[in-house]
Design a protein that fits this description.
The complex is a heterodimer of chains A (about 375) and B (about 625). In chain A, strand 9, helix 9 and strand 10 form a beta-alpha-beta unit. Chain A has 2 domains: about 190 residues, Rossmann fold; about 150 residues, Response regulator (Rossmann fold, 3-Layer(aba) Sandwich). Chain A is α/β, with parallel strands linked by helices. A 7-stranded mixed sheet of chain A has the order 7-6-8-9-10-14-15, with helices on one face. In chain A, strands 2-1-3-4-5 form a 5-stranded parallel sheet, sandwiched between helices. A 3-stranded antiparallel sheet of chain A has the order 11-12-13, with no helix packed on it. Helices cover about 45% and strands about 20% of the residues of chain A. In chain A, helix 2 packs across helix 10 and helix 11 crosses helix 12. Chain B has about 625 residues and is an alpha+beta fold. Chain B folds into 4 domains: about 100 residues, 3-Layer(aba) Sandwich (Rossmann fold); about 190 residues, Tumour Suppressor Smad4 (Sandwich), CATH 2.60.200.40; about 220 residues, Glycerol uptake facilitator protein, CATH 1.20.1080; about 60 residues. Chain B contains 22 helices and 21 strands. In chain B, the strands form 4 sheets. A 7-stranded antiparallel sheet of chain B has the order 15-14-7-10-11-12-17. Chain B has a 6-stranded antiparallel sheet with strand order 6-5-16-13-8-9. A 4-stranded parallel sheet of chain B has the order 2-1-3-4, with helices on both faces. The longest helix of chain B is centred in the last third of the chain and has 33 residues. Chain B is elongated, with a radius of gyration of 39 Å. Classes of the chains: A alpha/beta (about 375), B alpha+beta (about 625). Chains A and B meet through helix 1, helix 5 and strand 15 of A and helix 21 and strand 18 of B.
Chain lengths: ~375, ~625
């Protein structure tokens, strides 16, 4: 009797414990290459390094395809100019024979080389760039982030409907396409929802006089889709003026400050920012990929995770997922199709879908920066 | 009348030679014949001739020898204690001042006291056999020292078989850690335990028996001792008490008998009283109290000692952690439990009424009516009886209660199914839905209800709380919902509600049984098979509950998170104000209050639904209440 009961228990336990664990994949001995390209020098060095770290952390948890082929990550330096980027891309595709390109370039850099990338006829995932034009007439390039249209619109609606702010001013970097697009999206939605724009100025105009003028016209919020450096600059002038309007910025602000100006994190405290991730909040449910990547990242690196590292993890995981869908993992057409068919892929913190044009749909977090962390306010699907 | 001088023999040793001069100086009216102890013992007949009284100052063995001689020659005795003989001073209430001691020792007439002999050996204060907890300690020992003694004596404590035969021929067979004959009734914990009963001139022996049946029993007793919480006349649970003029003590294995601090003889031991055999000069307060528990008759208080089949378990190597008991100890409780387990027409009627009430209340979606049905429900009592039956391996008790429970279940399922089939409309109400998602939390409720049920049943004064317990665990409504599921022909409905009922049932049984066990109701002899089976069922039931608990946690998380989640649908911003998820067999129903500033078209709502659906693996039905903010 006891033996019988014990046997039942053992069987049940095996069933329960075995439910969630897939059978291990045996290495086939073959290898497939994934190329990463990002800045190895220059002002965006930290951004490139962090994104690559994310890719490597993901590679450690997903080293094999379902058929047992090992995935090798080959990193290339995008350099500081478009020519160097093109050269690095060409090397990865033509010499190294990578099946997928992971592009750790911001919108400005990627827009400069997007046509060339298309000409390489290799599926590519833009890990950081959010400018919608990256996808214009694209067949092979795909976005991992939400685009600037969505981001600017969410920022404007949040300001109007959640913060109930009527008067806002925008400061834009005219040399950055990403910044200009966000300005346009924000201003359009803000105005259409009854908001009053009290000013729209280039970063070069920012000084004490300009900000005094904006204060004088009862500006309640400053929308700053600009670099971290400019945000810090604006904040310092505001402190001198003893004026504290609400500030809304765009994605990657905290990650950039942590990377480039770690000593000044306190100066961005309380700022609102749209982002792809959040560090805290009741609704943050760490999914399987997030938990595994966190552990892998901690094993491999001493530094902190950031928006960029998370994007590296997600980009690599999507590439592997797409390659697993194809009979031949080197079939670039198939991989490209598979990427553009992704629906509800479990990302680090949310589900990601990529449509046939390469555009990603995923939630936008509106966070406040609190104690050096992204504290979620709302999550917009 | 001329004052005739008395002849007193003063017996001393080298140790007490200092008293010689003091005694001589102090007594001008007496003639002192001083002798060293050894000389006295060798020439006892000569040296006691013409002597009226003996004063002795000697170590214990010598003192006892002198006492024997005094008794032989019908002489009274005075005692001058040595400095080290503090116990002697305390027991005979001798004064502290040497001059007063001498004055008392030289007095003419001693008080008459009984003399106890064990295997012919004189017992002045106490005789200890085996291990006794702390009862031979002085009464005035501080709590800390008492605790130290307690812990030291606890190590390796076990019960042995003992037989006590009294003068009347009554034989008591029991198991005990040890026993103690208390000669002098005042000044020790033992005497307080028996409420200072008996005296040294009642012709009786007071025998205190220590029998802690469990570790808990032992520590409960110690707590009483430390708190000095010994009510007069109420003997603690670990203690037995026998009073007789003669006791023969036999033990399962031969044990040393420690008489007045020295192991002198071994069991079997026969102890008898020589009433009034000793005349000794004692202090004014010594043994003034007369006995009250049976006076000079034999007296037995052995209700706390293990008897009958309890002996088998008691005589194991070590005492168990929890106590156990024979049915005789808790007769009233077992009578009530057997009554509860017996089938009756009232039970059938109440079961039917409560189920019908619950079924209608569920259809009405009326919490008040459902609670009314819970109050009527008679299922809790047979379940508690079943738990006790299982714990004690009492086949009669658990079979009867099992039959009663099963009949109750069948009645409830049948009547609820019948009502459902007769009802033309079969709405699914929130009261029903709330009973379709049993989780580990429900098991938690059942656990505490089981504990509370057993506890309230154990104490008459709180028995009225059982109704509250029945409400907390709500046995009949899940059964009624399961019956409704049967009536609807919906296996999911039935399965989920019956899982909830089973969770409650098994949880209550296991934890009521555990509670009875901890409260000391486990049988002296029992098997573990039944308990093991129910624990196994509990483990099996935990598996689906674990998964439903995960669902439950996820549901709570979703409901909470949606307070912060927004939707951007075709450029329109939708705020979710409130969301509730109801889990059904093949889909989840999401009830939402959503707010929007712009009018939402059907396409917008379709897109909204698609976005919500991405968060769920199961098919979703969304019922949205749209609030426009203008």
């Amino acid at each position: 009797m006891h033996r019988f009961l014990s046997a039942i228990l053992v069987i049940l336990f095996s069933l329960v414990s075995g439910c969630d664990s897939p059978s291990p994949v045996e290495p086939s001995g073959a290898m497939i290459k994934v190329g990463f390209i990002g800045p190895g020098e220059g002002s965006n060095l930290t951004q490139g390094q962090d994104t690559l770290k994310g890719v490597l952390a993901a590679q450690a948890i997903l080293p094999l395809l379902h058929n047992g082929d090992r995935v090798e990550v080959i990193a290339g330096d995008s350099g500081d100019d478009p020519a160097a980027t093109r050269q690095a891309m060409q090397k990865l595709v033509q010499q190294d024979g990578v099946a997928v390109l992971l592009l750790g370039l911001d919108s400005e850099r990627l827009l400069q080389v997007s046509q060339f990338a298309e000409s390489l006829q290799t599926p590519a995932i833009a890990l950081i760039a959010t400018h919608p034009d990256i996808l214009s007439e694209s067949v092979y390039i795909n976005q991992l982030c939400f685009d600037d249209d969505t981001q600017g619109t969410v920022a404007a609606i949040f300001v109007r409907d959640e913060l109930l702010i009527k008067r806002a001013a925008v400061i834009v970097d005219p040399g950055e396409s990403h910044s200009k697009y966000l300005q346009m999206a924000f201003e359009s939605k803000f105005s259409s929802t009854g908001g009053v724009l009290t000013g729209s100025h280039a970063v070069t105009e920012v000084d004490e006089v300009l900000l005094r003028q904006l204060q004088a016209v009862e500006t309640e919020l400053l929308y700053l889709p600009v670099s971290a450096q400019t945000v810090l600059h604006v904040r310092s002038i505001l402190e001198e003026l003893d004026w504290s309007p609400e500030i809304m910025t765009s994605d990657g602000l905290l990650a950039s400050v942590l990377g480039k100006f770690p000593g000044q994190v306190g100066n961005i405290e309380g700022i609102y920012a749209t982002d792809l991730f959040s560090d805290r909040g009741d609704f943050i449910r760490h999914r399987h990929l997030g938990r595994a990547a966190e552990a892998s990242f901690d094993d491999l690196f001493d530094s902190e995770e950031s928006t960029f590292t998370n994007l590296g993890v997600e980009g690599y995981a999507i590439a592997v997922h797409a390659m697993n869908q194809c009979q031949s993992e080197a079939d670039r057409q198939c991989i490209s199709m598979a990427i553009r068919s992704i629906e509800n892929f479990e990302g680090i913190m949310a589900k990601i879908s990529i449509d046939s044009s390469g555009r990603a749909t995923r939630p936008v977090y509106v966070n406040t920066i609190k104690n050096g962390l992204l504290d979620s306010v709302v999550k917009v699907y | 009348m001329p004052n005739q001088k008395r002849h007193i023999a003063f017996i001393y040793t080298e140790e007490s030679i200092g008293n010689l001069e003091l005694v001589s100086e102090h007594s001008p009216d007496v003639i002192i014949q001083s002798s060293l102890l050894d000389d006295f013992l060798q020439n006892r007949d000569t040296l006691t001739r013409n002597v009226d009284h003996i004063v002795v100052s000697a170590p214990m063995a010598g003192l006892k020898s002198v006492i024997r001689i005094a008794i032989e020659h019908d002489l009274s005795i005075g005692i001058l204690p040595l400095k080290s003989q503090k116990t002697l001073s305390r027991y005979f209430r001798l004064p502290d001042d040497p001059a007063d001691q001498i004055e008392l020792a030289l007095q003419e007439k001693g008080q008459t006291r009984d003399l106890i002999l064990c295997n012919g050996e004189l017992v002045l204060f106490k005789a200890v056999i085996g291990r006794i907890p702390v009862i031979d300690l002085p009464d005035n020992l501080g709590p800390w020292k008492t605790l130290q003694n307690v812990l030291a004596r606890f190590r390796g404590i076990r019960l042995l078989g003992f037989t006590f035969v009294t003068d009347s021929g009554r034989k008591v067979e029991t198991a005990a850690a040890g026993c103690m004959i208390v000669q002098h009734t005042a000044g020790s914990l033992a005497s307080r335990l028996i409420a200072n009963d008996g005296s040294s001139h009642d012709g009786m022996i007071s025998l205190v028996i220590a029998a802690p049946l469990s570790v808990l029993d032992y520590f409960r007793f110690l707590l009483q001792v430390l708190k000095r919480d010994l009510a007069p006349g109420k003997i603690p649970s670990a203690i037995g008490y026998i009073k007789s003029s003669r006791v023969v003590i036999e033990s399962e294995e031969s044990l040393g008998v420690d008489i007045d601090g020295e192991e002198i003889t071994r069991t079997p031991v026969e102890c008898e009283v020589r009433p009034g055999a000793l005349r000794v000069n004692t202090g004014p307060k010594a043994d003034a109290k007369q006995g009250h528990l049976g006076d000079s008759n034999e007296y037995f208080n052995i209700k706390h000692l293990p008897i009958d089949n309890e002996l088998t378990k008691a005589k194991k190597k070590a005492i168990p952690f929890f106590p156990y008991a024979s049915e005789e100890r808790f007769k009233d409780l077992f009578v009530a439990l057997r009554d509860d387990a017996r089938m009756s027409s009232a039970y059938v009627m109440l079961m039917l009424l409560s189920t019908l009430l619950a079924t209608i209340g569920l259809y009405q979606n009326s919490t008040a009516v459902v609670i009314g049905a819970m109050l009527l429900a008679p299922l809790m009592s047979p379940i508690i009886s079943f738990a006790m039956g299982m714990l004690r391996q009492d086949q009669g008790l658990y079979r009867h209660s099992a039959v009663k429970i099963m009949i109750g279940i069948a009645l409830a399922l049948g009547s609820a199914a019948l009502v459902t089939m007769l009802f033309p409309h079969k709405p699914v109400t929130n009261e029903m839905l709330s009973r379709l998602s049993p989780s580990l939390l429900d098991l938690g409720v059942a656990i505490f209800a089981g504990i509370a049920g057993a506890y309230t049943k154990s104490y008459k004064e709180i028995l009225q709380s059982l109704a509250g317990v029945a409400i907390a665990v709500a046995l009949v409504p899940p059964l009624a919902v399961a019956g409704i599921g049967l009536g609807r022909g919906d296996p999911y409905f039935f399965g989920q509600a019956f899982l909830l009922f089973s969770t409650n049932l098994v949880g209550i049984i296991v934890f009521a049984a555990l509670t009875f066990w901890m409260l000391g109701y486990s049988a002296a002899i029992k098997g573990k098979r039944s308990m093991g089976s129910v624990v196994l069922v509990l483990a099996l039931i935990t598996i689906p509950l674990y998964f439903t608990y995960e669902d439950f946690v996820e549901k709570i998380q979703w409901e909470l998170s949606w307070q912060k989640e927004r939707f951007l649908v075709n450029g329109k911003y939708i705020i979710v104000r409130k969301a509730e998820i109801l889990r059904q067999r093949d889909r989840d129903i999401v009830l939402m209050d959503i707010m929007a500033r712009e009018r939402l078209s059907r396409d917008d709502l379709d897109d909204f639904k698609q976005k919500v659906q991405t968060n769920f693996s199961r098919k979703l039905v969304i019922r949205a209440n749209i609030i426009y903010i203008l």
